[in-house]
Each structure stands twice: as C-alpha cells, then as structure tokens.
Amino acid sequence: MLQSFADLNFRWKIALPILLLAVLLIITGALGMQTIRSVASASEALSRHHLPAITLLLNADRDLYQAFVAERSLLSDENGRQGDALRKSHAENLQQSYDRVHKYAATQQ
Questions:
Q1: Is the pTM for the entire model greater than 0.90?
Q2: 98-106 own/partner pairs: CB under 8 Å, 24+ apart
Q3: How far apart, in Å, do the first and last CA atoms of the chain sit?
Q4: How far is CA 27 from CA 16, 31, 37, in A?
Q5: Do residues 104 and 56 make contact, with C-beta atoms less than 8 angstroms apart?
Q6: Among 73, 103, 102, which residue's Cα sits nearest to residue 89?
Q7: Average pLDDT for residues 52-60, to the nearest whole number?
C-alpha cells in the first residue's frame, strides 16, 4: 500500500489526501444535517404534544393542592362560618383535577 502511494506522481500524492478530507467533510455534513432534522422533529413533538400534556398534569396538581388547602381549612374552621364555601371549593378543585388527569390520559397513546 505504501509502495503504491510512493509510486504515484506528485499531483496524485497531493490530491488524494485532499479528496479524502473532502469526502469526510461531506459525510460529516450529511450526518450533521440528519441530526439537526432529528432534533427539530423531536423539538416539534415536544412542543406540540408533551408540553400541553405536562401543563394539564401541572394544573391538576395545583387543583389537588387547592383541594387539600380547602380540606385543611375546613378541618380547622371552628366556627363553621366558611364551611359551605370550603366544601364547594374542595369539590370543584377535586373535579377539575379529575377532569384534567383524564384529559391527559386521553392525549397519551
């Protein structure tokens, strides 16, 4: 192999490494473009599908926390003045959380 390279004339000795580097550069560029397309499609899937689903779960978690706060406030309400409002808030937040979790489940494959 080295002997055949040594037997080449000077023009080919200069051209072959440059051609090899050009081919490697083209391959690297093609792989880079393919990777960029892959990242772009993953980013689009994230923004169109996963982020709205995560938002639903985050809002469901907030509703559960608000229901928990209403429940704790109901337990500590000694005079019973806020009882009806707290029960209503508790029930609404539980229902909203339930609805959001089921909406999230419907978005999953």
A1: no
A2: 100/56, 100/57, 100/59, 100/60, 100/63, 101/56, 101/57, 101/60, 103/56, 104/53, 104/56, 104/57, 104/60
A3: 57
A4: 16, 6, 15
A5: yes
A6: 73
A7: 93
Dist CA 45 CA 41 (whole Å): 6
What are the φ/ψ torsions at residue 80 (nearest 5 degrees)? 75, 15
Token pair 């926390």 is found at 65
Q: What percent of the chain has pLDDT over 90?
A: 59
Query: How many residues are there in the chain?
Result: 109
The per-residue DSSP string of 16-85 comes to HHHHHHHHHHHHHHHHHHHHHHHHHHHHHHIIIIIHHHHHHHHHHHHHHHHHHHHHHHHHH-SS-SSHHH
Residue 68 CB contacts under 8 Å (≥ 6 apart), including other chains:
none
41: number of Cβ within 10 Å: 10
**Structure token pair of residue 69:** 């706060």
Return the amino acid letter for 66.
Q
